[in-house]
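Open question from group meeting: does this chain pack into something compact, or does most of it stay loose? Before anyone orders reagents, we agreed to write out a predicted structure and look at it together. Recording both the input and the output here so the notebook holds the full record.
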Amino acid sequence: MNSILIKDVPQDERPRERLVKYGAKNLSTNELIAIILKTGTKDYSSKYLANEVLKLVKDVTDLKNITLNKLIKINGIGAVKAIDFLAALELGRRVYEAKPLDNNLKCNSAYKIFKHFKSELTGINQECFYCLYLNQQKMLIDKKLLFKGTLNKSLVHPREIFKEAYLASAAYIICIHNHPSGNVIPSSEDINITNNLVEIGKIQGIPIIDHIIVSDNNYYSFYENELIGR
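Structure tokens returned:
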């Protein structure tokens, strides 16, 4: 396949022309990736490179976990093409998965919060730490993804959490993050971070009223397990 360059393919069979003629939904995954990659090299067509990308995963859903390092190991895909591809994946994820802010959501139940935000926090291979900012009636007024990666005290900066609380004029804060392992039991680091934030919240006058850890099918609430009082 690498010997057949796009310029050698009949005009109406090229991925971009097929998209115009038939619509994006009628293109193969290989063709869609070829369009995102834009061009091949003098030795490899964009369709060949797209096929090499697909060899890295079991099926198309696994593309959400593909990394920059894996992509740039493919001969013919440099950093620019890899970055473009990851950006396209992330944009697609946000379009179809991200929920608009629901200002009518009353955050008075850990289970309700878990169900509402589950799709944003599951199926991700790294920890993501959100804060939900609530008004006096515990209605959601803002949410922020503040940190990504394995959580520790040096990563989770209280100043960022409370700065956003002041900007939103929040009365309460709920922290929520995922455990990609599926085990929702808090680690000692999770407990230390939470205790630290609770104490700072008391000083700042904006209480942390819960910290919820979620997995694909379960959640753990610090409040429900009496590790945070109200």
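Observations to bring back to the group:
The chain has a mean pLDDT of 88.
Strands lie at 128-134, 140-148, 172-178, 208-214, 219-221.
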